[in-house]
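Following up on my earlier thread - several people asked me to post the actual chain instead of describing it. Fair enough. Here it is, all 262 residues.
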Amino acid sequence: MKRTPWVRLAANYAVDGKLRRARSAAVWPWVLCRLKDGDGTATAEDLAADFCAADLLIPLEVAEVQLAGLYRVELLVECAGGFTTPNWSGYQPKSTERVKAWRNNLKQPETVSNVSQPLATVGNQLKPTETTDGTGRDVTGQKETPKPAAVSLELPSLGIPKAPDPNHAKALEVLNYWASARGGHASLRKTTTKGGRLRIRRVKDRLAEDFSVEQLKMAVDGCLSEAFNVANGHTDLELICRDEMKIRRYGGFGAKKKAVER
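Reply from S.P.:
Thanks for posting it. Predicted structure:
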């Protein structure tokens, strides 16, 4: 099961002094989620007021005013790569080194190496007994038992290559379908940019929830069939596939469109 990212939000965040001056309590949790998507940074596009309005189902004017308030009181400040909030790492700490090491270990192929185990010593170690006449003869007839050397058993690495992601090809199919519906520009099909990686990740998240490729394509059709979405730029694949609710909402639009076409 895929681990869900999370953010910290104080129970009394709405009475924070800066948030009160900004009058932005309604959009602040949404802003934190967008920053979390980028490990503490978000682009101007990520923080667009029209996206905020569509996600929170609030008027565009309200989203614009509240986001502007965050910039005004410097709860959103410019940084390399876009925008962040001061002391992000302090308020949103990452996992401890122990937990990180444990998680990384789960991702690595299982290997067995560097196994070294000494053999048990057999018998007592007896020293030669000197005689009183100085000859050095062992009068007991017992000789020193040599200590066996430690044996190091080195096993070959049993590293297993990581299995390919079964949903990657399906995610690319949905991405290409969406890009073609948006006009087919090559930049929309890229998966190496930040936006492209986020689109692929959202699609894979929904595929992991047992939505089919056809259902995701239906959601794309539904979103692009709505004049409001097209006019206000609410047509990004990341937005369409952001959560289950949007797939079902836009999928309903798509089903109505196909019914009319028939």
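The first helix runs from residue 17 to 22. That should answer part of your original question.
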